Amino acid sequence: MLSKSLQVAGLKEVYVVVGYQGEQLQKHLGAKYAGIHICYVHAEDWSKGNLYSFLAAQVFSEDDFILCMCDHIFDSQIVEKLMNMNPHSVLTLAVDRVQQSSSSSRPKESRNLTKSFS
Fold first, then answer.
1. Predicted structure pTM score
2. Is the Cβ–Cβ distance between 36 and 13 less than 8 Å?
3. 15 vs 88: CA distance, rounded Å
């Protein structure tokens, strides 16, 4: 859930949007996890999808922020690169393109891309 990548990249605080079984998640993670302070936001419309969860947290996004899905695994270098992008960008998108090997389920090649939009 709270990736070591966020900790390694230097994040000290995260907002976790919870919905279904959110109380159980809060009990499990607590107020601090892996050295990162956690603020919880309850999404009333969590069953409608990620956009509604994001909208529940929008009051906390006046400053720059990084949006992560809890079931995505990523390298801390991606977070570090995002944190060092042009602060005047309207949007920066990070995409991890993985090419699958035809003979196995292991990734053959992974290439991390970041693109800023002004």
1. 0.66
2. yes
3. 23
